[in-house]
């Protein structure tokens, strides 16, 4: 934890002069520790602390022993100052009081038992003793005796220490597993930070005899020790804590020599990932039996496929590390392209939904994935700077590939969306897994094109080299191109809007593609940020899928297709206005043919009667010109003929005119009824006085009012409502009439005229109950 510095203002200025930018921009590939001045500053800070202690003549009698970052040579301006005193207790008390009065904040302790300093202390306090540095000869003698005793019981203590380190790492990993830490990492306590690094090096020293050729791993850790310590020291000198907040990343990246803060953060995340990996490896070596270590060490790799076989057999970090350190010698970059078909076959095995999650993760952590898909290497450490993406780009791709396996094995993870998985074929799952791997490979490329467009080009290039079929390649290309479409439609648009359906259909989102893309959308969200996925989003996606699969949507698409074929100059939204009841009774082909006749005819068409297979009777009226009271006349005619109206679809359409359909009930012969309708030009039977339960304005704006009439089913309801609106001087643009059991709901869309509430009052006085 970074606190107030112990330096004076003058010393603070001197420290800023000592800490210089690295001699070369640190990218992790050229690991030259001398590039950093962090060790020099740490040594200088240590001498300043010693000077403060030695100002008081009593310091020798307290026998101070340096602990923590001071002892390890990792001091920063705001480091905690940890000291163990092994002198006289009264003198220690007086000495520390003096230091506190001077303003120096110490974390100090004295042994409970001067004969055994491990008594009554935590495991990490014992670990600190092994790296402690004395400041007096007497302190050195006493410390040496304690260290000798600890080493004499090394097997006992290192088991305790190893367990403590593992538990602490696990708890800390949970604490810092957040979007915030990815965007603004804690260089000290975050995963892969200085705490992981120092623990890895200390565990190595405790179990040194178990390691065979650890040079590369130790070089990596020592390099990042200097790198991260420089960052921490610079943060403290600039007045910050151990967190690389977004505000400081720009200046810090520039100071380190990077072109942009994104390049800096990518380099940093790569470093944190490497430290995390090699620290994990050290802990696993310490835990492993000698037999396991010898077995893994004796293994050899003769061909590319041996790497896969080894990881498939065991996904342990021990095996991952052995694979990682043999990759370049067996598969140099210049040979990668020549192995395309073998790489494609290997990836097929790794991505198989039935393969284990551990196998997949080991392929990524061993960096074998960099050879299988070289584009991934560019994404290592790439952070998307927003509050939504929880992982770096390479980790997100790995998480997506893991998620598809999880959902295949446990569809209930999807909540309301789980029904989709049962309809997917083996080929669908294969397309999904490859889409997960390739959907974000173009992230971070410097181009004006969207990453989805560039991703399609990468798929085309790679799949051709793998020897995959054109059909399979086209499906994965389509998924990569459109992988964000359903997310935008489900969460930002109206899933019941035909315009949204049409937009999606034009992109090819239907049938199997719809199901795959819906499932991928859920996978992508969960792999981006597990906390962003919930039942609400699952329900929105489900609603969109069901709407696109609905009879209503199918009618819309069929109408659009027929409309184009018949060259009908009407918007596809007309099919919505015609109503589901009519569309389920009269075929779309008949409707489009009839509409085309009405559109091209110069005169009004004669009434048309149509009896469906279900025995439903529908009558269509058409008039090229609308006029006030026309609907009232039509309804009056039907009522006069003794026909009961069950449903109505009433419209005035451009170039078509008035186009009204009525579903009626009648006991008369069809031919006789047709003749009666043709001859009945005006109503002869008076409209009865009926009453509605409610009459209200559903919506009203400058363009239209929607008026609802609800009541119990009875003869003359529609005729009464239409006549009342006509008598009130309203022009009816369209209407929907529904009869559900014994209840009627008549909806009229009218042209605004006067005051809407006055209209309701007038209608209620005439027809209200």
Question: Can you put this structure into words, describing what you see?
Answer:
With 769 residues, this protein is α+β, with helices and mostly antiparallel strands. It has four domains: 1-284, Four Helix Bundle (Hemerythrin (Met), subunit A) (Up-down Bundle); 288-372; 406-549, no CATH class; 592-767, Biosynthetic Threonine Deaminase, domain 3 (3-Layer(aba) Sandwich), CATH 3.40.1020. It is built from 38 helices and twelve strands. The strands form two sheets. An eight-stranded antiparallel sheet has the order 5-6-8-7-11-12-10-9, sandwiched between helices. A four-stranded mixed sheet has the order 3-2-1-4. A hairpin with a 4-residue loop joins strand 9 and strand 10 (705-712). Helix 24 packs across helix 29 (511-528). It starts with 8 loop residues before the first helix and ends with a helix. The relative contact order is 0.04.
What key attributes describe this structure?
769 residues, alpha+beta, Four Helix Bundle (Hemerythrin (Met), subunit A), 4 domains, eight-stranded antiparallel sheet, four-stranded mixed sheet, 12 strands, transferase, Protein-PII uridylyltransferase, hydrolase, [protein-PII] uridylyltransferase activity, repeat
């Amino acid at each position: 934890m970074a606190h107030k510095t112990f330096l004076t203002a003058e010393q603070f200025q001197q420290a800023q002069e000592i800490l210089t930018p690295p001699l070369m921009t640190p990218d992790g590939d050229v690991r030259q520790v001398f590039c950093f001045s962090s060790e020099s500053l740490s040594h200088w800070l240590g001498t300043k602390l010693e000077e403060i202690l030695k100002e008081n003549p009593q310091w020798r009698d307290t026998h101070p022993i340096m602990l923590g970052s001071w002892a390890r040579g990792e001091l920063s301006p705001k480091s905690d100052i940890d000291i163990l005193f092994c002198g006289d207790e009264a003198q220690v008390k007086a000495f520390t009081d003096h230091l506190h009065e001077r303003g120096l904040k110490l974390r100090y302790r004295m042994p409970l038992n001067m004969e055994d300093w491990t008594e009554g202390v935590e495991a990490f306090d014992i670990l600190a003793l092994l790296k402690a540095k004395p400041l007096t000869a007497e302190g050195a003698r006493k410390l040496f005796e304690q260290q000798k005793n600890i080493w004499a019981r090394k097997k006992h203590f290192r088991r305790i220490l190893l367990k403590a380190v593992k538990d602490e790492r696990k708890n800390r990993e949970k604490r810092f597993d957040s979007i915030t830490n990815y965007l603004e990492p804690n260089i000290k306590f975050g995963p892969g930070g200085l705490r992981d690094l120092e623990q890895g090096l200390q565990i190595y020293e405790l179990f040194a005899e178990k390691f065979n050729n650890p040079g590369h791993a130790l070089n990596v850790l020592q390099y990042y020790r200097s790198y991260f310590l420089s960052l921490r020291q610079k943060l403290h000198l600039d007045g910050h804590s151990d967190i690389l907040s977004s505000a400081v990343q720009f200046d810090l990246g520039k100071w380190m020599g990077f072109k942009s803060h994104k390049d800096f953060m990518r380099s940093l995340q790569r470093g944190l990932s490497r430290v995390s990996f090699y620290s994990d490896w050290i802990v696993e070596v310490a835990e492993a039996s000698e037999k396991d270590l010898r077995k893994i060490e004796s293994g050899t790799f003769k061909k590319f496929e041996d790497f896969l076989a080894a990881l498939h057999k065991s996904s342990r970090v021990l095996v991952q590390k052995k694979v990682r350190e043999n990759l370049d010698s067996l598969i140099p970059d210049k040979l990668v392209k020549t192995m395309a078909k073998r790489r494609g076959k290997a990836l097929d095995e790794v991505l198989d939904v039935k393969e284990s999650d551990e196998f997949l993760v080991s392929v990524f952590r061993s960096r074998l994935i960099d050879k299988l898909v070289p584009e991934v290497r560019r994404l290592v450490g790439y952070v998307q700077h927003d509050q939504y993406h929880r992982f770096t780009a390479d980790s997100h791709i790995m998480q997506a590939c893991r998620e598809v396996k999880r959902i295949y094995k446990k569809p209930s993870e999807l909540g309301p969306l789980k029904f989709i998985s049962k309809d997917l074929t083996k080929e669908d799952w294969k397309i999904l897994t490859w889409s997960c791997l390739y959907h974000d490979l173009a992230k971070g490329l410097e181009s004006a094109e969207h990453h989805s467009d560039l991703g399609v080009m990468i798929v085309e290039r790679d799949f051709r080299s793998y020897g995959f079929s054109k059909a399979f390649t086209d499906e994965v290309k389509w998924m990569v191109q459109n992988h964000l479409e359903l997310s935008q439609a489900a969460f930002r648009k109206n899933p019941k809007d035909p315009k949204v359906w049409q937009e999606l259909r034009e992109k090819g989102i239907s049938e199997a593609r719809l199901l795959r893309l819906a499932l991928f959308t859920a996978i992508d969200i969960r792999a981006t940020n597990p906390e962003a996925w919930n039942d609400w989003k699952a329900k929105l996606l489900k609603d969109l899928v069901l709407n696109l699969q609905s009879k209503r949507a199918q009618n819309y698409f069929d109408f659009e297709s027929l409309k184009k074929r018949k060259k009908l100059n009407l918007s596809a939204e007309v099919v919505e206005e015609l109503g589901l009841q009519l569309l389920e009774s009269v075929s779309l082909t008949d409707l489009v043919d009839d509409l085309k006749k009405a559109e091209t005819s110069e005169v009004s068409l004669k009434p048309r009667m149509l009896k469906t297979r279900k025995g439903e009777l529908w009558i269509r009226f058409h008039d090229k010109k609308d006029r006030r009271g026309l609907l009232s006349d039509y309804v009056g005619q039907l009522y006069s003929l003794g026909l009961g109206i069950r449903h109505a679809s009433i419209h005035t359409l451009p170039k078509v005119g008035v186009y009204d359909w009525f579903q009626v009930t009648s006991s008369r012969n069809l031919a006789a009824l047709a003749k009666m309708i043709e001859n009945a030009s005006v109503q002869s039977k008076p409209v009865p006085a009926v009453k509605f339960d409610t009459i209200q304005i559903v919506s009203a704006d400058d363009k239209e009012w929607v008026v609802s009439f609800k009541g119990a089913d009875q003869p003359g309801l529609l005729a009464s409502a239409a006549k009342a609106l006509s008598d009130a001087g309203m022009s009816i643009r369209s209407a929907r009439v529904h009869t559900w059991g014994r209840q009627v709901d008549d909806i009229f869309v009218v042209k605004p005229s006067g005051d809407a509430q006055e209209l309701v009052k007038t209608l209620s006085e005439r027809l209200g109950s």
